[in-house]
Amino acid sequence: MKKGTKFFLLLIIVLFGYGCVSFLKLSDLQLDGYKFPNNPDKAKLLLKEMGIAHQIHMWDSIETYNVIFEDEFYGFFGKQSHPFKEQKMTFSLNYIPKTFNGQLEIVSGKEEGAIWGIQSWETYRKNINGKIEIKKNKDMKFWVPTYQYFIEFPNRIQEATAVDYIGSKTIHGIECEGVLASWNTVLPQKDIDQYVIWLDSQSKRIVKVEYTVRDMYRFVSGAAYFQDYKDYDGFMLPSVLPVESNLVKDGYLHKMSIVNFTPNKLSSNVLTPLN
């Protein structure tokens, strides 16, 4: 039995054990009391201000970028949610910004040296001799672009076609304002994710992003905190991104860390070997 199938069966058993049958329901990030539409114009303005605070124009100035990236998974659900052989992994990630073309190289543990890539949603593996083998892999089709989306999130979410102001709240002592964002409509859809972006009301930087995970299971949702920002010559990136999940009652599912960021380390041709 494949890991994903075993995880799904175990998940159902655990959720029933907790008396939770909400896994049959499509996850929805609308807050209690929220009525659509609220204030779309305010939401658009907040996203524009967030883009300025994160200096997203910098992404237009580079061809590719490299990120040394760590991800540590916790507990039962953390262990089951990823395809790697260790609970703490270090990667060298290379991407072409504003596309989903990139490569993930494992630089720690038992799989050190393995390189997975994605180009136009086609997954491939690169062997130690540099030979490219087209190989379908659902895990890498999920994880390689997911890491990229988190890194580029302040820029990527500007593409959302449906936004609304969702209100304000305090997160870790920071006064925040929230924007609900999606495509076509902010209301829940079976195959399109929702996001709630919580912005520091003063700096307009992201404090927390809540999101659905339709590509995995339609009842799953999560939240990533954007912490300890660092300026890489104009690129404003969080150093630490702890992730919560509605599958976990207490604590984090995993914690991502951006260790280093280097623009234009590789040519874009290296990241589009299937051309």
Could you tell me the CATH topology label. outer membrane lipoprotein receptor (LolB), chain A
- Poorly predicted parts: 1-21
| Spatial extent as radius of gyration | 19 Å
Describe the oligomeric state of these chains in a short phrase. Answer: single chain
CA-CA gap between termini: 35 Å
Number of strands: 14
Number of domains: 1
Globally, the shape reads globular
CATH architecture: Clam
Look at the structure and give the mean pLDDT.
90
CATH class: Mainly Beta
- Helix fraction? 10-25%
Secondary-structure-derived class: alpha+beta
In CATH, the homologous superfamily goes by the name: Lipoprotein localisation LolA/LolB/LppX
Largest sheet: 14 strands, antiparallel
What pattern of helices and strands is seen along the backbone? Answer: HHEHEEEEEHHEEEEEEEE
Helices and strands, with pairings:
Elements: H1 3-17, H2 40-53, E1 65-73, H3 75-80, E2 88-96, E3 101-106, E4 115-119, E5 122-126, E6 132-134, H4 138-151, H5 153-156, E7 162-171, E8 174-182, E9 195-200, E10 206-212, E11 221-225, E12 227-232, E13 235-245, E14 254-263
Antiparallel strand pairs: 1-2, 1-14, 2-3, 3-4, 4-5, 5-6, 7-8, 8-9, 9-10, 10-11, 11-13, 12-13, 13-14
Description:
Mean pLDDT is 90; it is low at 1-21. The protein is an alpha+beta fold. A hairpin with a 2-residue loop joins strand 4 and strand 5. The longest helix has 15 residues, at 3-17. Strands 1, 2, 3, 4, 5, 6, 7, 8, 9, 10, 11, 12, 13 and 14 form a 14-stranded antiparallel beta sheet that branches. The chain has helices at residues 3-17, 40-53, 75-80, 138-151, 153-156, and strands at residues 65-73, 88-96, 101-106, 115-119, 122-126, 132-134, 162-171, 174-182, 195-200, 206-212, 221-225, 227-232, 235-245, 254-263. It has a single domain (3-263), classed as outer membrane lipoprotein receptor (LolB), chain A (Clam). The protein starts with a helix and ends in a 12-residue tail after the last strand. 28% of the residues are buried.
